[in-house]
Hints:
The structure holds two protein chains of two kinds.
Chain A: E1 3-5, E2 10-14, E3 19-21, E4 24-26, E5 31-38, E6 45-49, E7 60-61, E8 72-74, E9 83-91, E10 101-103, E11 107-112
Parallel strand pairs in A: 2-11
Antiparallel strand pairs in A: 1-4, 3-8, 5-6, 5-9, 7-8, 9-10, 9-11
Chain B: E1 4-7, E2 10-13, E3 19-25, E4 32-38, E5 44-51, E6 57-58, E7 67-73, E8 76-81, E9 90-97, E10 107-109, E11 113-117
Parallel strand pairs in B: 2-11
Antiparallel strand pairs in B: 1-3, 3-8, 4-5, 4-9, 5-6, 7-8, 9-10, 9-11
Amino acid sequence: AQRVTQPEKLLSVFKGAPVELKCNYSYSGSPELFWYVQYSRQRLQLLLRHISRESIKGFTADLNKGETSFHLKKPFAQEEDSAMYYCALSGRGYGGATNKLIFGTGTLLAVQP
Amino acid sequence: GAVVSQHPSWVICKSGTSVKIECRSLDFQATTMFWYRQFPKQSLMLMATSNEGSKATYEQGVEKDKFLINHASLTLSTLTVTSAHPEDSSFYICSARAGTSGRSGELFFGEGSRLTVL
């Protein structure tokens, strides 16, 4: 079964501190992993995806198939990073156009000044 | 990026009435849209996958007769909550995938619709 686990509901750090938001997944095939962010009073938006191997707003995430993890990291947190972060999984395979996203429960990142 | 718009953003209704929520892709065509439900301070729960021109695919535990989904065009999907009750009060969010190739197409989310059933 597809499942995404984010063990931390809340992560509070001070400005300038490193951040790691944990995400583990369960999927029998070859998944696509994403991180979505929701800032206060705004809609959900894509932060990054594992296939792009990109760094967005200083955030990176590496897919570790051995540990089935896709942790989100940033070396120096900023106050504007405070938001709700969701890890999500989409299964690859046939067609792809209807592959649905399964979300984790989310982690609220609070960056203190 | 692509824009997905939902209407209404907030609706209050009496118990027993039906409420329709619209989801539109404003500048792209979407053969597939997804409807999610989000309870306060909780994650998004996928309710159903809306396919243009065919029946929606519902997730386990979601009543298809309760949550009617219609995807009549490539830019519009509607979710109708029939005979709404207070327990249906929630935040409903739609998303659409840009591009028909799909597999790596980005999902764009609407701003959500808050339903309050009195």
